[in-house]
What we know:
The structure holds two protein chains of two kinds.
Chain A: H1 16-32, E1 47-48, E2 59-65, E3 68-73, H2 76-89, H3 96-103, H4 115-120, H5 145-163, E4 177-182, H6 188-200, E5 205-212
Parallel strand pairs in A: 1-5, 2-4, 4-5
Antiparallel strand pairs in A: 2-3
Helix pairs in contact in A: 2-3, 2-5
Chain B: H1 29-48, E1 52-57, E2 77-82, E3 87-93, E4 98-106, H2 112-126, E5 133-138, H3 144-157, E6 161-164, H4 169-177
Parallel strand pairs in B: 2-5, 5-6
Antiparallel strand pairs in B: 2-3, 3-4
Amino acid sequence: MGKAKVKRASTSIDMTAMCDVSFLLLTFFVLTATARQPEVLVVDTPQSTSPEKLPDDGLGIISVADGKIFFGMKNPNVRELTLKNISQKYSVNFSAEEYEKFKQLEEFGVPVRNLRQLLSLPNDQRTESIQPGIPVDSTETNSNELYSWVQEARRATIEFNRSREGEKGYVDPGPMKVAIKADAEEKYPAINLIIETLRNQKQNKFSFVTGLRQDN
Amino acid sequence: MAELNQDSGKSNKGGKVRAKKAGGKVDLTAMVDLAFLLITFFMLTTSLNTPQAMDVAMPDKNKMDQNDNLEIADNRSITLLLGSDNKISWYYGQLAKPIYPPTTIDYGKEGVRQVLLRMQKEVPQRAGGKDLIVVIRPSEKSVQRNLVDILDEMRIVDVKRYMISKINSDEIEVLKSEGLFND
């Protein structure tokens, strides 16, 4: 009789449970990740060491690159209300279908009178080259369309927040915040025009959108 | 674990020799590797893709009186004129009779930060304990990166009082004479 050998434990580990868990997590992350829309206006922001993050909601973003100004609102419901106000102010009528399309529009850079034309195009044809930018000047009249958009978006945010007041567990997120997303190489006069437009409507607080720099 | 080829318990005992079935046990290591790689990717992209925000507060605008200027003590304020070619010209006091005349410096750790740190110590001694005020005046030849860099320096050096204001023609002349007003 030979010696009774000690049976070696198998080195292969059962991976099934681990695989299950990892795929569950994977599914979770894939589903929660919001698909990022490709930016129409490509902006190469400067970098800073600021620790603050940009809020996800209740935000209006003014993008500037190559002298073109684009505007976008984060909340689709606010977008709709804003367009209603703008439609009254500039006496341009939009159809229900156009409101629906505007709700999906992340950002745009056309004068109000060209907005219907932009909305009639399919998504992939709304490129930067056909959008001349939102008109802006140093006045507070209708010719300064950026002034109107920001003002109406702020009003729409208040309106929208008020309409949700009755909901259970509702916390007022406060007024709309404004962020300026300017290209690193954008000259100061263009930025100054936007800052003055904001200051003219007492929006004295705003943020510059920047990338993150590790070293200082 | 669910195994497909369970032993019947009486194999090779009188019965026919069956062709051994290929195992139902698959090596999952590579699959797990891949899954974790994707998890890491999605985790990082979801949380890291929100950009940073740099908050700026401007003073209320006095629309009635455009010339409503705030008087600041000369010995408390330094002025940074943001010129072209990523350079700054700075002076201490009033431009007409400066305590330190305009000097050209660079951005970053070695340039403007050293000046700010030095003045942060020097100003309270000269102004009887009152702290430094920095006036930032971007010229029309400066770019957005310059402004963000300067505001970032304010945060790093922890300058409590600073403001962004309009450049005047005398200061543009200073920039021109120092060659910082190019396109």
